[in-house]
Amino acid sequence: MRLHSLEITAFGPFAGTETVDFDALGADGLFLLHGQTGAGKTTVLDAVAFALYGTVPGARREGKRLLSDHAATGAVPQVTLEATLGGRRIRIVRSPEFLRPKLRTAGTTKQNAKASLTWLDGRGQNLTRLNEIGDAVNGLLGMSADQFFQVVLLPQGEFAKFLRADSDERGNLLERLFDTGRFGDVEEWFAERRRELAAGLADADQAIDIMLGRVSQAAGVPEPSTDAAPGEQAPDPLEWAARVLDGARQNRTLAQGRAVLVDAAAGRASAALAEATSALDLQRRRAIAEEQLAQYRDGEATRAARRAELADSAAAGPIADAVADLRLAATTADAATAALTAAEQALPTSAAGKRFHDALHWPPAQTDPVDERAVVAEFVRAWTTDVARLQSLLGIAREADRLDDELEEQRAQRAETVAAIERTASKRATLPETLAAVEARVARAAAAAAELPGLDERCARAQAVAESALELVRTRAVLVEAERVRDRAATARNSAWEHLLELRERRIDGMAAELAARLEPGAPCVVCGSAEHPNPAAAATSTVTKAQEDKAAAAERKCAAELERSIAAVADASRAVDLLHDRTGGASAAELAHTLDAATSAVRDARARVADFDPATAELRRLRAESDALAVTLQDLVARRSALDERIAATERSVAQMRASVAEEIAEGTSLTERIAECEKLIDGARRLQEARIAWLDASEQHAALRGELDRRVSASNFDSADAAADAVLTKDRVEQIETELRLAEERRAHAEHVLLEPGIVAQSGQPPIDLDPLRARFAELDGAAKVAAGEVAECRRRADDLERLVAELFVAAAAIAPQRAEFDELANLADVVAGRGQNARKMSLRSYVLASRLEDVAESASARLRRMSSGRYEFVHSDEAGVRGKRGGLGLDIRDDYTGVVRSAKTLSGGEAFLASLSLALGLADVVAAESGGVVLDTMFIDEGFGTLDADTLESVMAVLDELRAGGRVVGVVSHVDEMRQRIPSRLYVKRGRAGSTLQVVAS
Question: How far is Cα 212 from Cα 84, in angstroms, rounded to an integer?
Answer without folding.
Answer: 75
